[in-house]
Design goal:
3-stranded antiparallel beta sheet; 13% strand; binds pyridoxal-5'-phosphate
Length: 386
């Protein structure tokens, strides 16, 4: 029977995980296994079979089955007072798939796409799949700088997309300030650049309300928002969504493989509709918010220099002067702890040489306390001895 601790050796043929004996790895942006709702999901699948019968197992509606699309539109409208409609909602196989679909639909090879800097590193290969030219946007500690971005847009000529994770970002855990959100939306609308807002972490908020989405500020015009159940429920479901103008949703639904396949993940989408409408979703998210908050606190208490993010799964640590992320990594691993060095989150590895990303999602609080203590000790020793 599967256990509830992080996967051991031998599971590599089943899951995406590399077990390294003796190392507490703060590199993985994966959920704590014990927080995956194994029993609740089994009940949702049984309920979907009971409630939808054969309809759960045949070809689905291209944009996603009505029960999930309707719930999502209501849920997203409840999260931020502001309407997201079913006609603006398309069900995907996760946020990665959403990003690939949007890029495929709105760009052609050779087009210019802007990315936040630093940004979620695994989007680089997704964009490479589509042959677009990536350019980093000017950013500072608060994220994208709209004034510098306006200058860049003037120099670059036609830009199709601007991708960013403005809320509880990966890797920084930070959120773009309110006035920059407004300025960015206005700039993108004026310059006719579609903003792709990766809103993966919105619901994992620990302190206060999450900031308004760009999607909401733009009232649906010129912003495509992508969301996912990977962090709130489970990544293995491969289930997420796109919010976009209804014309874009219609084009997505008309894509050859979407239409031919009857949606992209119909049975899981209907099981999610059951999970959501039964109240299990809200209950589960409330529970994991509390747990991830405890995990965040355990890590940031053990590494007091680490910022305490208000949401998401990551903290972005600035190293003391003279300590470089790449050098620290091998020392840290010899001391039984690992992380992802900052340059990994920049195009061509160019930037954040003095930063590291620490994830608090994958390990329980007691283990995070030990991992954090090992890291703090390694940083102090590196600083002392160079
Ligand atoms: C910002 C961001 N976007 C997208 C993803 C991938 O999400 P999904 O599992 O829904 O494809 C992640 C996962 O780490 C992420 O951090």
């Amino acid at each position: 029977m599967a256990g509830d601790t992080p996967a051991g050796a031998g599971l590599a043929s089943i899951i995406q995980f590399e077990h390294r004996p003796g190392i507490l790895d703060l590199g993985w942006g994966h959920p704590l296994p014990a927080l995956l709702p194994v029993d609740g999901w089994a009940r949702a699948v049984a309920a979907a079979s009971r409630d939808f019968g054969w309809q759960a197992l045949t070809y689905g509606r291209s944009a996603g089955p009505g029960p999930l699309v309707d719930w999502l539109a209501e849920h997203l409208s409840r999260l931020e007072a502001g309407g997201t409609t079913p006609r603006q909602t398309f069900v995907t196989a996760g946020a990665s798939h959403a990003l690939s679909l949007v890029t495929g639909l709105l760009t052609k090879p050779g087009d210019t796409v802007l990315v936040d800097s630093p940004t979620y590193h695994l989007v680089f290969p997704i964009f490479a799949d589509h042959g677009v030219r990536l350019v980093s946007v000017p950013a500072d500690d608060d994220g994208v700088d709209p004034v510098a971005l306006a200058g860049l847009l003037g120099r670059l000529g036609r830009v199709r997309l601007l991708y960013l994770v403005p809320t509880f970002g990966n890797p920084t855990g930070r959120s773009l300030p309110a006035e920059r959100r407004q300025a960015l939306v206005r700039l993108a609308q004026r310059e006719r650049v579609t903003v792709v807002e990766d809103d993966t972490y919105r619901e994992l908020v620990y302190d206060g309300p999450a900031p308004p989405s760009l999607w909401r500020l733009a009232e649906g015009s010129g912003v495509v928002r992508i969301g996912t159940f990977s962090k709130t429920v489970a990544p293995g479901l491969r289930l997420g969504w796109i919010n976009a103008d209804p014309a874009v949703v219609r084009r997505l639904a008309g894509l050859g493989y979407v239409d031919s396949g009857g949606g992209v993940n119909h049975a899981a989408a209907l099981a999610m509709a059951s999970f959501a409408t039964s109240g299990a979703y809200d209950e589960h998210v409330a529970k994991i918010r509390g747990e991830y908050r405890r995990q965040r606190d355990a890590l940031t208490t053990a590494v007091p220099q680490a910022p305490v993010p208000a949401g998401g799964w990551f903290t972005w640590l600035r190293l003391p002067p003279g300590v470089r992320a790449a050098d620290l990594l091998s020392r840290a691993e010899r001391n039984g702890v690992s992380f992802v060095p900052g340059p990994r989150f920049h195009l061509d590895g160019n930037g954040s040489a003095d930063r590291i990303r620490l994830s608090f999602s994958h390990l329980p609080p007691e283990t995070l306390a030990v991992a954090g203590a090992r890291l703090a000790e390694t940083i102090a020793a590196t600083e002392a001895h160079g």
